[in-house]
Amino acid sequence: xxxxxxxxxxxxxxxxxxxxxxxxxxxxxxxxxxxxxxxxxxxxxxxxxxxxxxxxxxxxxxxxxxxxxxxxxxxxxxxxxxxxxxxxxxxxxxxxxxxxxxxxxxxxxxxxxxxxxxxxxxxxxxxxxxxxxxxxxxxxxxxxxxxxxxxxxxxxxxxxxxxxxxxxxxxxxxxxxxxxxxxxxxxxxxxxxxxxxxxxxxxxxxxxxxxxxxxxxxxxxxxxxxxxxxxxxxxxxxxxxxxxxxxxxxxxxxxxxxxxxxxxxxxxxxxxxxxxxxxxxxxxxxxxxxxxxxxxxxxxxxxxxxxxxxxxxxxxxxxxxxxxxxxxxxxxxxxxxxxxxxxxxxxxxxxxxxxxxxxxxxxxxxxxxxxxxxxxxxxxxxxxxxxxxxxxxxxxxxxxxxxxxxxxxxxxxxxxx
Length: 417
Ligand SMILES: [Zn+2]
Known about the structure:
The protein contains 19 helices and two strands. By secondary structure, the chain is mainly alpha-helical. It has two domains: 2-16 and 29-277, no CATH class; 315-414, no CATH class. A two-stranded antiparallel sheet has the order 1-2. It starts with a helix and ends with a helix. Zinc ion binds at residues 378, 380-381, 387, 391, 393, 395.
C-alpha cells in the first residue's frame, strides 16, 4: 500500500486538459459498474474482497481510483505489468500497449476476429508473443498521435497491433496459454473459471506432450481448435456482465469446457466448422498442403501420433508400429473399414465426432453406452481397432460385451459414400 501512495504522487496531471476533463472532476469510480463483473469473474463475494486484493496487491482498487485513462495506463504499468514481469520475464513480449488498452478500456472480451485488427481482449490470441519491432512501432505511433493532439482518448483502433502470428508447434501453444493464464490469474485469481480452464488445458497438453511434440499438423488441427475454444471461453465469460444484485445473490457466470480438456487429453478434439482463419498458422512452405493427404512413405513416421482427422487408423496391424495399440476387430467391422478405405482410396477416417453425429448421438457417453463400453474404454480403439499407445484411456485386448452389431451400424452410418 505504501508503494501505492508513492505511485499516486507520480501520476501525471496532463489529463486535466484532455478531452476527458469531464470525468476528471467527477467522483465516479473509474471502473463504474464493471467492478461487480470483476468480482464475479474472480468468483469473489464483495465481503471477501480482501482475498482478491491480497492476490494482486490491490490492483483493482488502484485502477478504480484513477481519474482517467492516462492514470489508468500508469497503474497498469506499475501495478500490473511490472510485478508480472518480475515474476516471469518471458511476458515481456505480451505486456505491451495493446494489452494495456484492453485493460484500461475493459475490453476483455475477444471481438471482431475476422478483421485485420481484431480485438483480442484477454483471450489467448492476445498473448501470442509479438516482435519487439512491432510493439515499438505501435507505441511510437500512439505516442506521436497523443503528442500531436494532446489527447489520450485517441482512437486506439488506428494503432492496434495487427493479427498475431499463430505458433506452429506445441511449445509455442504452451507459451501462449501459459502467458494468458498468468495474466488472467493476476487479474482474477485462480478461482476464475477461465484461469481454471487455461491451467487444465496446459496440464492436458503436457500430459499428452509425446503425442503432440512431433505432430506436423499440430497448429492446423489441435492447436487451432484449442485457441479457438479458449477464445470462445473468454468471449463467454467476459461477455457476461454481472450486476451488484446478481453478485450479492451469487449469480455468477461460469464455463463448461470439459470437452476441450478431454479432447486434448485423448487426442480426439473435433474441428469446429465456424472457426475463423485467424486461428490457423500460416503455412511455412509450400510443402504443407492441408487438404491433401501426404504421400505414403517415411513421413508416416512423423504422423504416428496423429489426431482424429488423420491417417494411421488401420484396423489391421498399424503402420505406425510401436506408437500404437491395436486389437483384432470383429470381422464385419474390419471388412467395412478396410473396404471403405480401399474404395475411397483413403487412410483417413472421419472423427469420432462425425460418427456420433451421423448416428445422432449427443456425446461420447451415449456412444459408449450404445457400444456397451465402460466409460474408461477408449472409443477410437473400440471402433477403429487402434489407438496411440500413450492414450490415457483403457485399451483392453478383449472388450467384454462389446456390441459389434451396433458398432457396425455406427460405422456404416458415419462412413461417407
Ligand atoms: Zn485410446
